[in-house]
Amino acid sequence: MDLSTLALVFATFFFAAFLKGTAGLGFATTCLGIMAAFLDVRQAIPLVIIPSVLSNALVMIDAGGFLPILRRFKFMFLATLPGLLIGLWLLGGSSSATPRLVLGTAMFLYGGWGLWGGTLQLVQRPLLDIAVGVVTGLVNGLTGSQIMPILPYLMSLDISKDELVQAINTSFTLSSVIMLVGLNRLGMVSMEVLAISVAGLVPVFLGILVGSKVRRWLPEPTYRRMVFALIGLLGLGLILRAFL
Protein backbone atom coordinates (compact mmCIF):
# COMPACT_ATOMS: atom_id res chain seq x y z
CA MET A 1 0.00 0.00 0.00
CA ASP A 2 1.57 3.34 -1.05
CA LEU A 3 1.89 6.40 1.19
CA SER A 4 -1.01 8.34 -0.38
CA THR A 5 -3.37 5.40 0.16
CA LEU A 6 -2.15 5.01 3.74
CA ALA A 7 -2.81 8.71 4.35
CA LEU A 8 -6.36 8.29 3.02
CA VAL A 9 -6.90 5.25 5.26
CA PHE A 10 -5.74 7.12 8.37
CA ALA A 11 -7.79 10.22 7.47
CA THR A 12 -10.83 7.98 7.07
CA PHE A 13 -10.15 6.42 10.48
CA PHE A 14 -10.04 9.87 12.11
CA PHE A 15 -13.22 11.14 10.43
CA ALA A 16 -15.20 7.97 11.19
CA ALA A 17 -13.91 7.96 14.79
CA PHE A 18 -14.97 11.59 15.22
CA LEU A 19 -18.50 10.67 14.13
CA LYS A 20 -18.37 7.65 16.42
CA GLY A 21 -17.31 9.75 19.40
CA THR A 22 -20.01 12.33 18.70
CA ALA A 23 -22.99 10.09 17.87
CA GLY A 24 -21.86 6.80 19.38
CA LEU A 25 -22.22 4.84 16.13
CA GLY A 26 -21.28 4.65 12.47
CA PHE A 27 -17.54 3.89 12.58
CA ALA A 28 -17.41 0.70 10.52
CA THR A 29 -20.12 1.72 8.06
CA THR A 30 -18.55 5.15 7.49
CA CYS A 31 -15.07 3.66 7.03
CA LEU A 32 -16.23 1.05 4.55
CA GLY A 33 -18.32 3.56 2.63
CA ILE A 34 -15.37 5.95 2.18
CA MET A 35 -12.67 3.31 1.65
CA ALA A 36 -14.71 1.66 -1.09
CA ALA A 37 -13.78 4.67 -3.23
CA PHE A 38 -10.06 3.80 -3.19
CA LEU A 39 -9.76 0.20 -1.89
CA ASP A 40 -11.29 -3.17 -2.66
CA VAL A 41 -13.95 -3.85 0.01
CA ARG A 42 -12.26 -7.19 0.75
CA GLN A 43 -9.16 -5.20 1.72
CA ALA A 44 -11.10 -2.60 3.69
CA ILE A 45 -13.13 -4.94 5.93
CA PRO A 46 -10.12 -6.51 7.73
CA LEU A 47 -8.50 -3.06 8.10
CA VAL A 48 -11.58 -1.69 9.85
CA ILE A 49 -12.32 -4.48 12.34
CA ILE A 50 -9.50 -3.85 14.86
CA PRO A 51 -9.96 -0.03 14.97
CA SER A 52 -13.70 -0.69 15.22
CA VAL A 53 -13.19 -2.78 18.36
CA LEU A 54 -11.01 0.00 19.84
CA SER A 55 -13.48 2.74 18.94
CA ASN A 56 -16.29 0.76 20.60
CA ALA A 57 -14.20 0.22 23.74
CA LEU A 58 -13.19 3.89 23.99
CA VAL A 59 -16.77 5.12 23.62
CA MET A 60 -17.94 2.55 26.21
CA ILE A 61 -15.31 3.75 28.69
CA ASP A 62 -16.20 7.40 28.04
CA ALA A 63 -19.95 6.80 28.44
CA GLY A 64 -19.53 4.94 31.76
CA GLY A 65 -22.04 2.70 33.51
CA PHE A 66 -20.98 -0.49 31.69
CA LEU A 67 -21.99 -3.04 34.34
CA PRO A 68 -25.52 -1.67 34.95
CA ILE A 69 -26.16 -1.63 31.18
CA LEU A 70 -24.73 -5.14 30.80
CA ARG A 71 -27.06 -6.42 33.53
CA ARG A 72 -30.08 -4.57 32.16
CA PHE A 73 -29.69 -5.78 28.55
CA LYS A 74 -27.95 -9.14 29.11
CA PHE A 75 -30.66 -11.13 27.29
CA MET A 76 -30.45 -8.86 24.24
CA PHE A 77 -26.64 -9.04 24.05
CA LEU A 78 -26.61 -12.83 24.39
CA ALA A 79 -29.34 -13.23 21.78
CA THR A 80 -27.28 -11.21 19.28
CA LEU A 81 -24.66 -13.98 19.06
CA PRO A 82 -26.76 -16.82 17.57
CA GLY A 83 -28.45 -14.30 15.29
CA LEU A 84 -25.05 -13.20 13.98
CA LEU A 85 -23.97 -16.78 13.30
CA ILE A 86 -27.20 -17.49 11.41
CA GLY A 87 -26.78 -14.29 9.40
CA LEU A 88 -23.21 -15.18 8.43
CA TRP A 89 -24.34 -18.67 7.42
CA LEU A 90 -27.12 -17.24 5.24
CA LEU A 91 -24.69 -14.74 3.70
CA GLY A 92 -22.41 -17.58 2.66
CA GLY A 93 -25.12 -19.01 0.45
CA SER A 94 -26.59 -15.88 -1.12
CA SER A 95 -25.93 -12.34 -2.31
CA SER A 96 -26.24 -9.53 0.24
CA ALA A 97 -27.37 -6.95 -2.34
CA THR A 98 -31.11 -7.39 -1.76
CA PRO A 99 -30.91 -7.45 2.08
CA ARG A 100 -28.70 -4.34 1.96
CA LEU A 101 -31.23 -2.57 -0.27
CA VAL A 102 -34.14 -3.43 2.03
CA LEU A 103 -32.21 -2.53 5.18
CA GLY A 104 -30.89 0.71 3.67
CA THR A 105 -34.38 1.76 2.64
CA ALA A 106 -35.73 1.02 6.13
CA MET A 107 -32.91 3.00 7.76
CA PHE A 108 -33.35 5.92 5.38
CA LEU A 109 -37.10 6.09 6.03
CA TYR A 110 -36.65 5.67 9.79
CA GLY A 111 -34.06 8.46 9.92
CA GLY A 112 -36.36 10.75 7.95
CA TRP A 113 -39.32 9.84 10.16
CA GLY A 114 -37.33 10.70 13.30
CA LEU A 115 -36.14 14.01 11.87
CA TRP A 116 -39.72 14.84 10.92
CA GLY A 117 -40.70 14.45 14.58
CA GLY A 118 -41.89 10.86 14.77
CA THR A 119 -41.53 9.14 18.15
CA LEU A 120 -41.85 5.59 19.40
CA GLN A 121 -42.25 4.65 23.06
CA LEU A 122 -41.77 1.06 24.22
CA VAL A 123 -41.46 -0.66 27.59
CA GLN A 124 -38.53 -3.04 28.01
CA ARG A 125 -39.46 -6.72 28.29
CA PRO A 126 -37.12 -9.79 28.35
CA LEU A 127 -38.82 -11.42 25.35
CA LEU A 128 -38.64 -8.16 23.41
CA ASP A 129 -34.94 -7.85 24.28
CA ILE A 130 -34.30 -11.39 22.99
CA ALA A 131 -36.22 -10.76 19.76
CA VAL A 132 -34.34 -7.52 19.09
CA GLY A 133 -31.01 -9.21 19.83
CA VAL A 134 -31.62 -12.13 17.47
CA VAL A 135 -32.83 -9.91 14.60
CA THR A 136 -29.94 -7.46 15.11
CA GLY A 137 -27.41 -10.29 14.89
CA LEU A 138 -29.17 -11.73 11.84
CA VAL A 139 -29.15 -8.37 10.04
CA ASN A 140 -25.52 -7.77 11.00
CA GLY A 141 -24.34 -11.11 9.68
CA LEU A 142 -26.32 -10.75 6.46
CA THR A 143 -25.58 -7.11 5.61
CA GLY A 144 -22.68 -5.90 7.80
CA SER A 145 -24.83 -3.24 9.48
CA GLN A 146 -24.88 -3.33 13.30
CA ILE A 147 -27.53 -0.75 14.16
CA MET A 148 -30.89 -2.20 13.10
CA PRO A 149 -33.23 -2.81 14.85
CA ILE A 150 -31.30 -2.39 18.11
CA LEU A 151 -30.81 1.38 17.81
CA PRO A 152 -34.49 2.27 17.15
CA TYR A 153 -35.44 -0.05 20.01
CA LEU A 154 -33.02 1.58 22.46
CA MET A 155 -34.10 5.06 21.35
CA SER A 156 -37.72 4.10 22.11
CA LEU A 157 -36.87 3.30 25.75
CA ASP A 158 -36.62 5.72 28.64
CA ILE A 159 -32.81 5.86 28.83
CA SER A 160 -30.33 8.69 28.83
CA LYS A 161 -27.95 9.69 26.02
CA ASP A 162 -24.94 8.04 27.69
CA GLU A 163 -26.92 4.88 28.53
CA LEU A 164 -27.96 4.58 24.88
CA VAL A 165 -24.36 5.04 23.72
CA GLN A 166 -23.11 2.46 26.24
CA ALA A 167 -25.73 -0.13 25.27
CA ILE A 168 -25.28 0.22 21.51
CA ASN A 169 -21.49 0.03 21.74
CA THR A 170 -21.58 -3.05 23.95
CA SER A 171 -23.55 -4.73 21.17
CA PHE A 172 -21.11 -3.42 18.55
CA THR A 173 -18.13 -4.78 20.50
CA LEU A 174 -19.55 -8.30 20.75
CA SER A 175 -20.29 -8.34 17.01
CA SER A 176 -16.89 -6.91 16.05
CA VAL A 177 -14.96 -9.47 18.11
CA ILE A 178 -16.86 -12.33 16.45
CA MET A 179 -16.20 -10.80 13.02
CA LEU A 180 -12.49 -10.47 13.83
CA VAL A 181 -12.28 -14.15 14.79
CA GLY A 182 -14.16 -15.14 11.64
CA LEU A 183 -11.95 -13.05 9.34
CA ASN A 184 -8.83 -14.51 10.94
CA ARG A 185 -10.10 -18.04 10.32
CA LEU A 186 -10.72 -17.12 6.70
CA GLY A 187 -7.10 -15.98 6.37
CA MET A 188 -7.98 -12.33 5.70
CA VAL A 189 -5.99 -10.87 8.63
CA SER A 190 -2.38 -10.67 7.40
CA MET A 191 0.64 -9.11 9.12
CA GLU A 192 0.38 -6.06 6.83
CA VAL A 193 -3.28 -5.61 7.78
CA LEU A 194 -2.41 -5.91 11.47
CA ALA A 195 0.41 -3.35 11.14
CA ILE A 196 -1.81 -0.80 9.38
CA SER A 197 -4.66 -1.41 11.82
CA VAL A 198 -2.40 -0.94 14.85
CA ALA A 199 -0.92 2.27 13.38
CA GLY A 200 -4.48 3.44 12.66
CA LEU A 201 -5.34 3.26 16.36
CA VAL A 202 -3.69 6.69 16.82
CA PRO A 203 -6.09 8.66 14.54
CA VAL A 204 -8.98 6.57 15.89
CA PHE A 205 -8.09 7.52 19.47
CA LEU A 206 -7.80 11.21 18.55
CA GLY A 207 -11.08 11.17 16.62
CA ILE A 208 -12.94 9.52 19.50
CA LEU A 209 -11.44 12.00 21.98
CA VAL A 210 -12.57 15.05 19.98
CA GLY A 211 -15.98 13.57 19.13
CA SER A 212 -16.71 12.59 22.74
CA LYS A 213 -16.06 16.14 23.89
CA VAL A 214 -18.49 17.42 21.25
CA ARG A 215 -21.13 14.93 22.44
CA ARG A 216 -20.88 16.27 25.99
CA TRP A 217 -21.85 19.74 24.72
CA LEU A 218 -24.88 18.55 22.73
CA PRO A 219 -28.34 18.93 24.30
CA GLU A 220 -30.38 15.69 24.30
CA PRO A 221 -32.83 16.78 21.53
CA THR A 222 -29.96 17.94 19.29
CA TYR A 223 -28.11 14.68 19.87
CA ARG A 224 -31.13 12.58 18.91
CA ARG A 225 -31.72 14.62 15.73
CA MET A 226 -28.09 14.10 14.77
CA VAL A 227 -28.43 10.34 15.32
CA PHE A 228 -31.56 10.22 13.14
CA ALA A 229 -29.72 12.13 10.41
CA LEU A 230 -26.75 9.73 10.60
CA ILE A 231 -29.08 6.70 10.42
CA GLY A 232 -30.63 8.15 7.27
CA LEU A 233 -27.23 8.80 5.67
CA LEU A 234 -25.94 5.32 6.56
CA GLY A 235 -29.12 3.87 5.08
CA LEU A 236 -28.56 5.83 1.89
CA GLY A 237 -25.01 4.46 1.80
CA LEU A 238 -26.32 0.89 2.05
CA ILE A 239 -28.77 1.56 -0.78
CA LEU A 240 -25.94 2.81 -3.01
CA ARG A 241 -23.72 -0.16 -2.07
CA ALA A 242 -26.52 -2.54 -3.05
CA PHE A 243 -26.29 -1.29 -6.63
CA LEU A 244 -22.46 -1.29 -6.85
Strand content: under 5%
**Structure classification:** mainly alpha
The number of distinct β-strands equals 0
Task: Quickly count the helices.
Answer: 12
Describe the biggest sheet?
Answer: none
Q: Based on Cα principal axes, name the global outline.
A: globular
Gist?
This protein has 244 residues and is mostly helical.
Description:
This protein is mainly α. Helices cover about 80% and strands about 0% of the residues. It has twelve helices and no strands. The protein has helices spanning about 5-25, 25-35, 40-65, 65-70, 75-90, 95-115, 125-145, 150-155, 160-185, 190-200, 200-215, 220-240. Helix 1 runs parallel beside helix 11, helix 3 crosses helix 10 (about 190-200) and helix 5 (about 75-90) packs parallel to helix 9. The two termini are about 25 Å apart.
How do the strands and helices of this protein lay out in sequence?
Blueprint: H1 3-23, H2 27-35, H3 41-63, H4 66-72, H5 74-92, H6 97-116, H7 126-143, H8 150-155, H9 161-185, H10 191-199, H11 201-217, H12 220-242
Q: Main attributes?
A:
244 residues; mainly alpha; globular; 0% strand; single chain
